[in-house]
Amino acid sequence: MAVEHRTPEAETPALLVRDVSHAFGENRALSDVSLEIPRGRFVVLLGLNGAGKSTLFSLITRLYDNVTGEIRIFGADIRRRATAALQRLGVVFQSRTLDLDLTLHQNLLYHCALHGISGADARARTAQALATVGLADRAEEKVRNLSGGQSRRLEIARSLLHRPSLLLLDEPTVGLDIGSRESVVKIVRSLVEKEGLAVLWATHLFDEVLPTDLVVLLHKGRVLFTGSVPELLAHTETQTVSDAFRKMTGTAAGTGELAA
Ligand SMILES: Nc1ncnc2c1ncn2[C@@H]1O[C@H](COP(=O)(O)OP(=O)(O)OP(=O)(O)O)[C@@H](O)[C@H]1O
């Protein structure tokens, strides 16, 4: 008789992706992608434009249906237990999705309503989320008045309202000036350190990777490496993440959309 082995709840990864592929017609955007995000870790999904990062996010968030492989959020299969899985997930997509003519407060209250959160609870969560991202004093202004970095921070606040345990961010710092980039990175890293959130941070900017992060290297729809930064450097016999990336992908220095 087959014995079923169950992973204890505390050991279940925040996100498990196993053997997931996706194609747009003839264009294979993802091929047998597997990765894991342990609880409470900051994981960088590193890949150039077109690597498949946004496609993977669309599958994890169920914008697209994954027809191959398996995706689990804290153990819940996103197809069979979609509600349980998505309740634990917060997302900041690459394109902006705020209502410019509503105030910060109204944008967040609207999102609370979508999650069935209302009244005093919604107001308390909104105030707390705005404070977390340093925008408490801007609550009654229209979003139209915010800078790019402030808008991003508001989107992060919005993603926290239903108190997720796993946060996905797709190229959150693209187009921001250096000061705004730093503040966005700092806020998200602090959520990992202080609140124990697990984060999947998609980027093509190597200087956003810290030595203590885990890295998933995605190139042309395939995962070429998963592990810690020291493991990546040892594996490639290089000194920097950008050199390691170039070596693994065969991308020559000075070409491609590399930064830092
Ligand atoms: N809706 C779509 N229809 C057809 N092809 C698509 C679609 N979305 C993505 N692709 C293709 O799938 C591949 C992966 O794209 P994807 O957007 O996931 O990459 P990415 O790593 O997020 O890059 P970027 O940061 O430029 O969005 C690319 O070849 C892209 O052209």
UniProtKB/TrEMBL annotation:
One Gene Ontology term of the molecular function aspect: ATP binding
InterPro entries: AAA+_ATPase, ABC_transporter-like_ATP-bd, ABC_transporter-like_CS, ABC_transprt_ATP-bd_su_PQQ, P-loop_NTPase
Pfam families cross-referenced by the UniProt entry: ABC_tran (PF00005)
PROSITE patterns: ABC_TRANSPORTER_1 (PS00211), ABC_TRANSPORTER_2 (PS50893)
SUPFAM superfamilies: P-loop containing nucleoside triphosphate hydrolases (SSF52540)
Recorded coiled-coil stretches: none
Residue span, ABC transporter domain: 15-245
UniProt keyword list: ATP-binding, Nucleotide-binding
PANTHER family reported in the protein's UniProt record: LINEARMYCIN RESISTANCE ATP-BINDING PROTEIN LNRL
Family indicated by similarity: Belongs to the ABC transporter superfamily.
Protein name, as recorded: ABC transporter, ATP-binding protein
